[in-house]
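Input record (one chain):
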Amino acid sequence: MTAHTPPTAPFRDPRLPFAKRVDDLLGRLTLDEKPAFLHQFAPAVPRLGVAAFRTGQEALHGVAWMGPATVFPQAVGLGATWNPELVRRVGDAVSKEVRAMRAKDDRVGLNVWAPTVNLLRHPLWGRNEEGYSEDPKLTSAIATAYTHGLRGDHPTYWRTAPVLKHWLAHNNETDRSTTSSSVRPRVLHEYDLRAFRETVEAGAVAGVMPAYNLVNGRPNHVSPYLSEHLRTWTDEDLLVCSDAGAPSNLVDSERYFDTHEEATAASLIAGVDSFTDHGTDSSQMIGRLRGALERGLLSEADLDTAVRRQLSVRFRLGEFDPEYDPHDATSEFDTPAHRALAREAAEQAIVLLKNDGVLPLAPDTRIAVVGPLADECKLDWYSGTLIHRSTPLEGLYERFGAERVEFAEGVDRVRLKTSAGAFLHVPVAEGAADAVRGAEGALDPALLAGRTDLPALTTDATGTELALADWGEGVVTLRAPDGRYLSVADDGRVRASADQPGGWVVQETFRLEPHGNGHLLTHLGTGRHVCVSADGVKVADEDPEVFELVVAERGEEAVARAGAAADVVVVVAGNDPHINGRETEDRTTLRLPEQQERLLRAARAANPATVLALVSAYPYAVDPAGLPAVLWTAHGGQAAGTALARVLAGDVSPAGRLPQTWYADDADLPGLLDYDVIGTRQTYLYFEGTPLFPFGHGLSYASFEYGDLAARVEDGTVRVSFSVTNTGDVTADEVTQLYSRAVDASVPRPRRELLDHRRITLAPGASAELDFEVPVTAFGFWDVTQDRWRVEPGAYELLAGASSEDVRLRTAVTLDGEPTLPRAVLVNGLAAAGFDEQSGIEIVDRTKVSGDAVTPAGTEPGELVYRACDFGRGIAEVTVEVAGRGTVELSLDGGPALAVLSPATPTSGPYDYISLGASVGAAGVHDVHLRLRGPLRLAHVGFSG
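The corresponding structure, as predicted from the sequence alone:
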């Protein structure tokens, strides 16, 4: 007899469309197997030959957490390049390294959680480093480029599957899992949704990750916007992956649902497809899903929808077609091309903020490079481990020669004297191996423990001189002479053991608290004081040691010495990405740490030719007066120092541009939790003050002339052209920027709004003719009276120039559009959240599933204004839909109250709405004013004749 080969299962047949293959495989899974597919760590199904699968490989600016990899500039630095083509190449390199690393370590996942497209609305946001820009157009342009690089260009198979973070309106770390972002409809559509939408519509996005916060009172993990908006932007099956621990937050911290079964079911139905919770242990989520099934909260069809979306991504990644997957053999890792690209990206990210002619530096310049970041190459939470490393000091040594470069770190050199008269001593670590945090890779680096193989600190008669750096707000680090930072491990001992401050909970930061005639040394990671006992130095809750701080040298003294002997001083200041402004921690001020301010003053006093180079994840409010030059760069990855040196030397003309407004003072900022960019005039779009440096700003070593601006409207497109000529002496890049402004808008519109941009390279004397095609729809706004986009007819100014404020050319076009009409309130009434203006109001959830309502934000009354409401020939009654207790007062055009409506008794719950009516007489067009008092929710206002 002849043995017959079993037929190939349809899901294994590469000739079939992915959709048919997904359906076939889904149909072979049992109801018992399906819930496990919805956890981050989906197990294998051996009987079908289906491998295990993990969602979530961090890859924000290089492969993160899994050990050594090429490290590119932080995301905000990539945004500062204003160069989508460059960023696409960075994404391409990162995705190739993901594939190459996975070939050697199957812990590396192909579902990459990047990029972050949250807009940089507020510069104090701790995760400012992760976003690209405050502007939705620039953000989507950079994000689209990065996702295309991550995806690869094969028409069928994706190299990696990018997931956008963090949906939606997420710009605060303070109480991030319980705060609600109040986002009015115009801000939602014109600002927060826009960056996501344009990136998804570009076709290289595999999914999104909801954020921890709530929007309009409803957690993002049960957001109706996932189905109402996100999934309408593409025909692809998008995989929505929860943020870590967020499914449990729905019950544990947000108290939005009573049980985890209810929360899990609601998330799944809203559109969450993969649950990231309880680490690698999937049993909790599987149990919740099965419990929801048993209670009838979910159906098998609900599970199928989510499993299908995951399988769709896996098929696109070539998992089931290894012989056809063009990316399967990818081995490009730490190649010369990737190293060159890292340097190119770091160079293009550098922004020259001010230059009175001191830059570029002549080849024979004697340079003092000073400051706490002068010999640092800092990493952030989402960095890989460095293979190559270049600090500003090393870059200047290489470019100018070590004999022409003097270095002073500018930290204080101190010893800590105990109450017994002894000093803290760092024992010699005989034979201890050097170790770099995270070099071995970890699925969850938050679980990495500190070193215990090194001896704990002791005391002796002379002690060890420590380098004390003050990072602001009283937070200090202490470093031993061998370069290791004082740290605390799980056993509570204090050791000089860390190569850098880092970790989910940083164990290398302390605070010196005045106490009597000395200081208590508080370890911030544990909240305990440093104690000295017979068995060594440790942290404990009792018997804190009182230390005397014995200063051997102040940092500014060393800076002044080095600066006085140099032709030029380069002060390298900024932040450590793990301290005072990072995930879980917002900043409190725009100011530089006081210690760094002192260093800058000392440098300027010693040498007026002082250049400030800010290396930071966010803007600072610095005083540029008296400084001949100021530069900014984000933490630039492995080639940061070389890039900075080449710009300082003039080997590269700087052409980075600010991706967000730099404000002059903390007083210019709105509240961190105020998301109404229109109402409180936030970002360059609406800010009416004078910025320190405006959005799009950046100088060059060349000069450029703009001319020949022309614009015409045809076939639904505004066609704009102008010329740019390099009138300088060096080849340089220019970032040309095109903005618009509605001249006579009927509603508040941006002062100017970026339409497009182009980064070009021009030799001296060379010119380029630039053409832009802008769809007329780009001039529209979200009309709350009609709940849709509308282009208003009239004049629109077009502005071309080198920044949002450096406008070189202007012209105007007249656009046809839909005329502005009064609100048809007799037909539609007023959706409470569709206001034109508000004061003291927040938007909340009308129900747990969908809809918005409004309520006073605090104990004071809230005010709402709805402009141009048309009552026709007249109305006789007003009705309101309310829940809770309190009053609604109605007036017209700011006059006296015409009606006061209040429930006779409070409703039973915040979602139990009742309708109240009152007699009101009015005709014609009026502005409706509402005043809300008390904990009352208002959902809708109706009018009848």
